[in-house]
Every structure is written in C-alpha cells, then in structure tokens.
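Before the break, one more example. Copy the sequence into your notebook; we will annotate it together after we see the structure.
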Amino acid sequence: MQKNASDNSDYIVDYSPNENDNKIDLGQIIAILMANKWFIALITGIVLLIGTAKAFIDSPVYKTDALLQVEAQSQGLRTLEPGGVLQKNEIPVMAEVELISSRMVLEETIKNLNLDIIAKPKYFPIIGEAVARRFVRNNEEKISNALFGQTRYAWGGESIRIDTFTVPSHLLNKNFMLIAGEQGHFRLMYENQMILEGEVGKLVNKQLKDKQQSVTLLVSLLKSRPDTEFSVMRQSEDSAIIDFKKNFAVSEKGKLTRILELTLEADNPQLAVQILNEVVDIYISQNVEKKSAKAQKTLEFLEKQIPLLKAQLDEATTALNDYRSRSGSIDITIETQSILESVVKIKTEITQLQQKRDELREKFTQSHPSILAVDKQINRLQGQLETLDQKIEVLPETQQAILKLTRDVNVNTELYTALLGNAQASRVEKAAAMADVRIVDYATLSTLPVKPKKALIIAVSFILGLFSSIALIFINKILFRGVEDPSLIERKLHIPIYVTIPHSVNQEKLSKKLHKSHYSRKSNDLLVLAVQNKDDLAIESLRNLRTTLHFSFSENIIMIASPSPDSGKSFVAINLAVVLADAGKKVLLIDGDMRKGFIHNILGVDRKTGLSELISDVESNAAPLLDEAIHKLPIANLDFISTGAIPNNPSELLLHKQFGYLLESLSKSYDYVIINSPPVLAVTDATIIGCMCDATLMVVRAGHHPMQDLEQSTKRLTQAGVRLKGLVFNDLPESSYEYNKYAYHYHDEKSN
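Here is what the structure looks like once it is written out:
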C-alpha cells in the first residue's frame, strides 16, 4: 500500500507572486461584509446604544455670553505738557483680552463667589445624576426617596451651599465627604475619619491633631435626606483658576470690530450668568480705578509742588516791593521789557520741563528716550537763557536789578497759575474717570443646553460603530490572512479543488443539538446532515464530489485530511460516506484520529473496540474482533469503525505493519474505505495514514488557513510520499462572490 513520492510530481508548490494577488476585488469586499453582516450589526448596535445612553445621561451644559466694546481711543490729560495739550493713546484690543483673562480679574471673581469651594451631592454611578435631573424637573420643591435602598446617594432635590471652608495647605484639592444628619446637623469626613460635626448656619472651627492647624466650615444651606453624602473640596488658587479657564473664553467678535465676546459654560445656568456678570463688573471697576489712580497720582504730585511755588512767588513779590520802596519809581525801557518777557517765557518752559522730567523719573530710568528728549529741550533753552543773560549784563545796574526781580515774580506767577489749573483739571479727571471699555450686553439666562448635542452624538455613535466593526473585520482578516479565494489556492499550489462546499445553517443546528447535554437521542437518530437534510446545498456539493470520485478515481482507500483542527474534515468524511452509500456503494468509514476522534458521538455508537484494538490484536486471529469493531449503521451500505481506546502512542501504533494488512483486507470487502485522519500540521499521524491510502483529499476551510499553512501541509504530505489528489474547499459563506461564481458554474453544468 506504500505510494511512491514520484506520484506527486505534478503538484509542485509555486511561491512566485501573481500579478492578480494584489488587485482589489470589490465583489470580494462586499462578500466579506455580507458574510459578517450580523457582526457589523451587533457592534454597531452596541456602540449606538452606548452613544445614545451617553447623550441622555450626560449632564446638560449651558452657555452664556456678554459683549464689551473697547473704545478706539483713550483720553488722558498730560498735565505738565506746556499749554495743557491733551494726549491720545490707542488701546490694543488683545491687551484687553489678556487683562480680562488675567489672575487679577479671575481671582477676585473666584473669591467673591466662593468658586474655590466645590460642594455637590454624590450620585449613584452612571445613571444617578440623570435620574436626579428628571425628578427635579417634575418635583421642584421635593426630595426624592432613595432608590434601591441606597440612602447614601442623592436621587433628586438635594442641594448644598457652603460660604466658608478653610483647610490647611496639605488638604487643598482633597475630597472631603459631608454626611447629612437629622434637623440640619452634619458630619465632615476625610479618609473615613470624622473631622468635625456641625449645624447649618453656624460657623464651626475644629483644631486638627497637631493643634497648629484647623478646619473652618460654614454651611448656609443643606437640603437632603439624612445619611445623604456630599462631596466637598477646597481648591487652591491655581487649581481654581485653571478649572475656571477651561470653561471661560474671551475673543474679539469678528475682525477689527473692537467688540469682545465673553463666554462661559456651566451645568448651572443661573450660576453661569452670575459668574460672567461678576467678571464684567470687576473688570470695568478695575479699569475705572486704574484711570482714577493715575489722575490721583498726578494730583498728589501737583499738590506737593503748589505750596513750594506759592512760597517762591511770595518771596519774589516781597523782594520786588522792597526794592521799589528803597529805589523809588523806576521806568523800564522798551528794550528791557522785551528782554524780560523773553526771559520769563524761557524760565517758565525750563521749570515746566524740569517738573515733567521729575514725573518721568518716577516711571523710567535715566537713559529712557523720553527723559533724554526732555534733557535735550532743557539744554537748548538753557543756551537761549545764557544769551539773554549776556544782554542783561550790559544794562544799567538799576535796570538789571528791577529786571531780575520782576522776572522772578512773573516766572513764579506763571508757574503757580499753570499748576493751579492743572491741579483743578486732575480733580475733574479723577471725578469723571470712565472706563475705556463699555458694556454692550450683560450675560442673560440660557434655557437651552449647548451640550451634549444628542443628535450629533447618536449620529457619530452610529458611524463609529459601523466603521469600527468593519475595521475589526478587515484587521482580523489582515492579521489572520486566512485564504478565502479557491482560485488563489489553485494558482499557488497547482492542486485542483474538486468541490466548494458552502456554509450550511442546517449543520449549525445539528451541531448545537449534538452539544446539548439534555438532548436525548432516539434510536437510529443520526445527527448527520446528509441524513437529516438531503437537499441542503452543502450535500449537493458533496454529491458533485461523489461524481468526481466515480469518474476520476480508481482508488478505493481515501484519507480525508486537513491542515489544522476545525476545518470540517470529519463533516466531509461522514457526509461523503453517506452520499456514496446512497449511490449504492458499499462504504466503510474509519475514524483514524486516535487522539481526539469524535465521529462515534455523531453516529451514536461506542468508542470501544475500534481501530486501536484491531491494529494491536490483529496477530491473534482477529476475525471475531473485526466483526465486533465494525458497526452496522442504520444507513444501507455504510459501516463504521471507531478509534477504539485512545492509545498512549498513536503514531507508533499506526507505523505497525499490521495497519497496512488491515487496510488491504478491508479494501477487498468495500467499494470505498474512507479514513478520517488527524490534522496534518498538528501531528505526524496523517502522513503515516496517507502513505497507507490510495489517495488523499485535504479539506481547507474558507478564511481559516493562511497560505503558509496550506503550503506547509502540502509540502509535508508530498515529501512523505502521500498521494494528494486534490482539495475540498469547505464552509464558504453563501454571500461570497467566489462561492456564487462556483455555484453558478455548478448549476449551469447541472442544468446542461
């Protein structure tokens, strides 16, 4: 019965790539999707269900906004500019955006509204908050009863407000638990340790264990059932600002409009309006205070200078009067009068520039360009003053004296008058200080939430579920790379595929019935597809294989093998034996898988006294034993030999020469002997059995085997001398493009 390896010379494995291997077949893609339509529907449904639940469970978020207009120019009085000229400065819009978002504004807002104190009820996981919201909508003033006996959770109507909560620095940003008690009493817990006890409306202060730090708490409102738990936290300034900025935004509305839009998102619309309006008020107030502070600073500087100039003016006036009293009436010539006016004007300008320089020095360093420009002007005027002083020196002594005294009086009078005017202007500016930004719209209450966007979430969930399921299918296909195209196997291995067997739903039902522990089999009840559903399309395919065997095979001992488990070789072996027997052939089915064979379960016979016993005891005149091992099935012309007792050494047992004698003897009594073998790649049993058989058919399951496994299986069989006649392509989905092609071809041949 041994076959020569040269019999397989026609079946050489081709490892060279084919130009069609990388082509994308749209029909095959559609077939893959159709074959996995229930998986796609399941994953899509699960993701859609999760998304829908999220859309209705998530807390609604409300958005409110306010509008501010930045003035194009800000007018500030330059009090020490000669002539009292008004200065105009452009206000950058982006600077205002940064100021509104600055710590200066946000810290004061957080402090005023106690936003750094977080207190909220503890809800039942996942659904608790949604249940509480629904209850509040229907019962505004009531408190819900505890569901599922969970009194620790809030179920609707609970509320809390904490006005004061101070903790040591190491307890900032830590979660405390406040447990409501009877008649307004409560307990504050941290890490299952009670920190303090208190009553609503009363300030409670408790020293900690180290006696150097304390916790202070004032609960102004607590509405709940007893035993309800609330989460309480005191945030640090940085954490509070970071959390605030997550939901707060400032931006210019449009381009170059100088309109600023302030937006805030929160789950409480009333609180959102209160917070945003507080931000607006604080910013406007700080803007006004900044302008008022500038005017106040200028006024303080002027009020320091006025008394000094008043004293200088009085002193100069007294000196001039005394000189006139001593010298009598002295007339000033026209030339002297002209020099006097020029000197007074220059001295006044120099003094004003020096005062301006003093003011700038409070803001800038000595090398600042503004100070250098003032110094340059002073030096120029000093040069002009020196020229006039030279002219004064040539005048008569009395003219010089009266000119100098008159000059001092006029200069001090000019400066004193100017300072009085500037001081009055600063007072007016301080009293009439207005912000550079005006409020266009305050924040108003929003009744429609902006989040969650239910329709969008549901749509995205559907799309995500659909694409995720499709992606999983193709990722699994890419990673596993099971061959689903019979023509690809033929091109690669150069081995004919005798038949393509479609997936059978009826076989699924039979398999489930077989695996039911409570299923009671009736006598002569064979759970075989070819017996239970003779018209199944899979059985039609096996009849096609029967025809091929009748016309193409002269051998009668046929091994049914497969590369790996779960390929369907037992299904093919059993049903092929049945359809051969139905055609009037005398058939013997042998379960040669002496490791995990289970055909006896399907056929409803005992395992004992089977192939292992026949091989072991064949030397001792085993004719009675053979009669006992052959089971007569309730199908005409079909007998069966089970595996027998599972041996410790199946491979060594199969190598015994008596196995060949047994097969040769049986082949003379039957038209076909069909042997179900173990998987080729799993153990060596298949190659041993195949060498004893006339022909071998290898069952390949669609999408189950990578091409490498098929190549390795073919190589292992051919190298061992097994005559591999062809392949059986099993379990191809009915929606597959390739299956339809083969099915149409089969039906066309049948109709012809």
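The chain is about 50% helix and 15% strand. The chain has a mean pLDDT of 81. Try to locate both features in your own notes.
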